[in-house]
TrEMBL record:
SMART domains, alphabetized: CA
Domain Cadherin: from-to ranges: 1-94, 95-209, 210-314, 314-432
Pfam families: CADH_Y-type_LIR, Cadherin
UniProt entry keywords in alphabetical sequence: Calcium, Cell adhesion, Cell membrane, Cleavage on pair of basic residues, Glycoprotein, Membrane, Metal-binding, Repeat, Signal, Transmembrane, Transmembrane helix
Annotated source species: Trogon melanurus (Black-tailed trogon)
Function: Cadherins are calcium-dependent cell adhesion proteins. They preferentially interact with themselves in a homophilic manner in connecting cells; cadherins may thus contribute to the sorting of heterogeneous cell types.
Single GO term (MF): cadherin binding
Protein name: CAD12 protein
TM stretches of this protein: 431-462
PROSITE patterns: CADHERIN_1, CADHERIN_2
Topology in membrane: Single-pass type I membrane protein
SUPFAM superfamilies per record: Cadherin-like
Length: 619
């Protein structure tokens, strides 16, 4: 009774004329699957649960016939093709309840080891099946997926099999439809279950190492032939076979070690040097004696441990310089150390001056105790002219065992710097050479300086020769010598005035020199002489000083000349010397000049009242 479609026929007769235009429908072919309503032409299913899997297409012959007319009823026919559409009304079914599979133990992980299939009579997406392993015995070792082309369940290996460990596995697999139709839920569960039994086949396998990687350590000074470790491999098959070991030779590095073919012990074959090679990486192969073609390989890593055999040294060659104007305690260089040995954690380097340099007052080393040190100055200033380069021996010592130390000589160059400590020049020629002058220009300047010095020396020598000739001439002159001195007398009334500077005859001074033929033992200390009283006569003054020298027990045995600067008295103007002059000219009183007569009239006018002096009137 399910509606399929409706057909309709038309009649060209007059519908008002009897039953000529009245049409009746009937099925001539297609029964008992379909039926048609005679009046409306509606086609319906005639049987319940038509199964597409049994028959998919049907041809139905339909007749339309009128009910009257002289011709006794006319009819027309048409064919209707009906195709059944599939629905998911059938669950998948396994053709058998148990599947048996045989799998070699050498099967690789991820490979397909077998197939099972459930049957679904539906078509298209209604026939798509999903397979799952029921949690249990084989859930951890096996997996199953669906082949989209064949709708088969493909069983794959998740972990390697071992016949010696387990020979058989049993688990269940469930097959179910992916696309369900809710109209058919009442039909029952759309899934099925089957049991899979897997038998593991024993295979002749290669030996198996006890570890995936072997790591060993050895000191670099280990003697040749010392055993440093061993590898182990076993034949796990039922009929166990002996194993032989050998090194997989790939390069010359592998020749540093040997392996015992039976025991698997590894020993050194050559002396090792960690500074040359810190780690060795090679492979060892194990094979079965019963079947040498079955082999396995393992990687061996050997780390060479360091032995403290190298002393620490200055890490880089420093170019150290010091300014000429450096102050004491100034750090001119910070140094670090490096060790060719593998420095352990917490390695410390100590710095100090060598014993032979500790007493020199030039530089010192300050250890900062963090594996660095500072070179400090100990002097206040340095001179490139005195010494351009200083060599400072620095001792560096490590903290490993045994302790290693080395003496490193640092070269320190003295440079010219500005006030801020910026280096201007460290070149040796810069001491004498201004910036920008070449060597040729320097030589030319030096030649000019030498020529000037020669001219000056010749000039001084000629002057001395001329002066000596003049002196000899004056000594041979029998006439009285005229001595010039700038000293003004006390005036006409100063009859006792006498300038004793006349006693200072050049000839007397020349004779006053010390005798070269007698070396005085000690020099006379100056004696305290009494002050000269006012109005002392010059004759008396000189006689008094002469007597003092004659009776002086400390006087030298050779001739000496004592000179005295004394100015006579008795002048009304007193002394005109600058020694006793007043501090300023304004304090001087020159009124007495007018009392001296006409000879001093001009002086009186000059030093008297300023308004009374007229230079134009002076003749």
């Amino acid at each position: 009774g399910a509606y399929v479609l409706q057909v309709k026929a038309t009649d060209a007769d007059d519908p008002t004329y009897g039953n000529s235009a009245r049409v009746v429908y009937s099925i001539l072919q297609g029964q008992p699957y379909f039926s048609i309503d005679p009046k409306t032409g509606v086609i319906r299913t005639a049987l319940p649960n038509m199964d597409r899997e049994v028959k998919e297409q049907y041809q139905v012959l339909i007749q339309a016939k009128d009910m009257g007319g002289q011709l006794g009823g006319l009819a027309g026919t048409t064919t209707v093709n009906i195709t059944l559409t599939d629905v998911n009304d059938n669950p998948p079914r396994f053709p058998k309840s148990i599947f048996h599979l045989k799998v070699p133990e050498s099967s690789h992980v991820g490979s397909a080891i077998g197939r099972i299939r459930a049957v679904d009579p539906d078509f298209g997406k209604n026939a798509e099946i999903e397979y799952n392993i029921v949690p249990g015995d084989g859930g951890n070792l096996f997996d199953i997926t669906t082949d989209e082309n064949t709708q088969e369940g493909v069983i794959k290996l998740k972990k390697p099999l071992d016949f010696e460990t387990k020979k058989a596995y049993t688990f269940k697999v469930e097959a179910s439809n992916l696309h369900l139709d809710h109209r058919f839920h009442s039909v029952g569960p759309f899934k099925d279950t089957a049991t899979v039994k897997i038998n593991v086949l024993d295979m002749d396998e290669p030996p198996v190492f006890s570890k995936p990687v072997y790591t060993m350590e050895v000191y670099e000074d280990t003697p040749v032939g010392t055993i440093i470790g061993a590898v182990t491999a076993q034949d796990l098959d039922a009929g166990s076979s002996s194993v032989r070991y050998f090194i997989d030779w790939k390069n010359d590095v592998d020749s540093y070690f040997t392996i015992d073919a039976t025991e698997g012990t590894i020993a050194t074959n050559e002396l090792l040097d960690r500074e040359s090679t810190a780690q060795y990486n090679f492979s060892i192969i194990a094979s079965k004696v019963s079947n040498p073609l079955l082999t396995s390989k393992v990687n061996v890593i050997i780390n060479v441990l360091d032995v403290n055999e190298f002393p620490p040294e200055i890490s880089v060659p420093y170019e150290t310089s010091v300014c000429e104007n450096a102050k004491p305690g100034q750090v001119i260089q910070t140094v670090t150390a490096a060790d060719k040995d593998l420095s352990p954690a917490g390695q410390r380097f100590s710095f100090r001056l060598s014993p032979e340099a500790s007493n020199k007052p030039n530089f010192t080393v300050h250890d900062y105790r963090n594996n660095t040190a500072g070179i400090e100055t100990r002097r206040n200033g340095y001179s490139r002219r005195e010494q351009e380069l200083y060599f400072l021996p620095v001792v560096i010592e490590d903290s490993s065992y045994p302790v290693q130390s080395s003496t490193n000589t640092m070269t320190i160059r003295v440079c010219r710097c500005d006030s801020d400590g910026t280096i201007l020049s460290c070149n040796v020629e810069a001491i004498f050479l201004p910036v920008g002058l070449s060597t040729g220009a320097l030589i030319a300047i030096l030649l000019c300086i030498v020529i000037l010095l020669v001219i000056v020396v010749l000039y001084v020598a000629l002057r001395r020769q001329k002066k000596k000739d003049t002196l000899m001439t004056s000594k041979e002159d029998i006439r009285d010598n005229v001595i010039h001195y700038d000293d003004e007398g006390g005036g006409e009334e100063d009859t006792q005035a006498f300038d004793i500077s006349a006693l200072r005859n050049p000839k007397v001074i020349e004779d006053n020199k010390m005798r070269r033929d007698i070396k005085p033992d000690t020099l006379c200390s100056p004696r305290q002489r009494p002050s000269v009283e006012d109005n002392t006569d010059i004759r008396h003054f000189i006689n008094q000083r002469l007597q003092e020298n004659d009776v002086d027990p400390s006087a030298p045995p050779y001739d000496s000349l004592a000179t005295y600067a004394y100015e006579g008295n008795g002048s009304v103007a007193e002394s005109l010397s600058s020694i006793d002059s007043l501090t300023t000219e304004a304090d001087q009183d020159y009124d007495y000049l007018s009392d001296w007569g006409p000879h001093f009239k001009i002086l009186a006018d000059m030093f008297g009242e300023e308004e009374s002096y007229n230079p134009d009137k002076v003749t």
